[in-house]
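Residues and backbone
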Amino acid sequence: MLVIASMVGAGVFTTSGFTLGTVGSPARVMLCWCLGGVIATCGAIAYGRLAALMPESGGEYLYLSRRVHPVAGFLGGWVSLTAGFSGAIATAAVAFERYALPDGVRPDVLSPDAVAILLIILCGTAHGINATAGKFLQNGVVAVKLFALAVFSCAVLSKLSTHPWHLEVTSPPTTNLWDAASGIATSLVWISLSYAGFNAAIYVASESTAASRSVPRALLLGTLIVTALYLFLNLVFVVSVPAEQLMWKEPVAAIAAEAIGGRWLELTMRGAVSLGLLSSVLGMMMAGPRVYSKMADDGVFPAVFSSSQGGVSRSIMLQTLIAVGLILAQRALMTTGLPSNTLLGLLFYLGTTLSVSSALCVATLFLPSVRGDARVKPSLIVDLAAGVYVTATLLAVVLMVCSRDPSGNSQWAQHLGGAALTLLTGLFAWWWFRPRLSG
């Protein structure tokens, strides 16, 4: 449930409109989602091996600090704090507002992103007050969400022979091979955010039963289920209406639902998406703080966040504040015209930062210290999966950074600016915390 809830979030219900605008063809959109599923499955296999070796909570922080260097682990934890969880929570909350309160329904008294900020505060409060209540709320929302998606799927199947499906292949915006490759790479990095939650179970490994076995199974099974769901949903989205009606639009699921079943199905889909985004916020609000508490337990983060001192609740408060701050920062950046909206700005920020962090984490499987571990049994499947994940993820980032927008302008600053700022602030935090904590 945690893996599914963390994966089925903002990306699957918002990304295809941006992807269609970038690659220009529904067929290429589906190619990107297929490639994303293969890469995520490889990542789940690789993270499963890491979890089997170190069945403790902590995620990238734990693996990088133990296998590379404490500063590398701290930066991994810092990325989780700022982008991996807080940034993803902000993205899901903004998408929730787009679906739950479309422009025709939103009261004039509500400022943009106000609902997203309120949702983050409420979810943080729910998990911070009572972890058990937060867990049951999380599982209940996931169950209702899956039921609503099943209703949508049945409606789609009932319309297979009567709905005018738009299967025609549209002309891509360019025939240049480099631009086509960079467009697919950019879309892949965005889509990777939809699959990013495949590793959610590693963050609560210490609280899992027989973690060395249950966590790898949860990663792989959850990823396969969600991949199948993503392929079905996005195929429906991109062929339900003409491509020009979806390009660069955010609520693609609602647009498709209305075209297929009318107003009632649109409302059903908006409800399902809103629940999905709510469960995503709840899931990440539960998993993320365990990383910061683990860092505090190891003495590289203020002791007030240590799990032994009840610091999980404080970590949740910290994550809530950062998520709200990221939304406000994106609103401020919009005044400069970069980005054009809050959601796209968050996608730019998260795509590069999280892709590089997870690729470096998986790459630790090839270090001599890991290869020489007596618990590591040689596995061609694991090695191949890890190699595919690292290579494909880093290649997509490089191509994306080198891409240009439709006007021919370079986009490297949009993609690298947030990631560079995150790493620089992480290094400063390490320099600031380390001597004080040691003393």
Remarks:
- The chain has a mean pLDDT of 81.
